[in-house]
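Tokens for SDR family oxidoreductase. Go.
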Amino acid sequence: MNQLKGKVVVITGASSGIGEEVAKKLAWSGATAIMIARSANKLESLQKEIRSTYNQEAYYYSVDLTDRKQWENTINRIMSTFPRVDALINNAGFGVFESFDEMDWDKAEKMLSLNVNSLMYTTYRLLPALKQQRSSHIINIASQAGRIATPKAAVYSATKSAVISFSNALRMELAQNTQVNVTCVNIGPVKTSFFDQADPSGKYQESVARYMLEPEKVATKICQALFTNKREINLPKWMQFGSVLYQLFPSAMERLLKSQFEKK
């Protein structure tokens, strides 16, 4: 990952899970991570770890991405502090696995706000800076759930489907006259704190335990893709194959995988 040395990368949702692992990989590769999340304590701890372990500088901003005014002010601070930004990794997001008609609507709106609106707004604000670089990159963390909708994930699946569509359209737009690459990361279940809120009972986690990805592995794939023209990262591979079959034969796949879909 020599292409990362000296680069400046903004990461949302950097305080834990995939975002935390990406920040560490970037530091190991000689890149500067600008870490964004709500938890100042976790970000400060991660900053200290990066400095001591990798002898690399890292910066953080504690902010609620769904608070438009707060995030706008923070972006302005970032843009005035750093002379350039080379990449953006839109990683922040969460899910709630509940039947649509039984869901707390505040949770549904929060998912839509963070997973979609904030991701698009962040991209919108940082894109002018990214376009100024000879080579830059936007990586959006989506999900295999955006390709295969399942019961109790109607809103979550919809948000991730939106991220995939947005990434595909943006990629085509930027390919016309810029050097900004766009990669969409479609992942299955990952061993992170995501499930603390999505699946507090732990039943779904237990049912998919043998399939769950390690966040360090996902982070490695993301960092390897930075500043390349890779269109998508699909993990695990077998789930990507399933999503292709689902697009071709949706009714048959829904019947075939009914029991698997209803494990949430």
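The chain has a mean pLDDT of 94.
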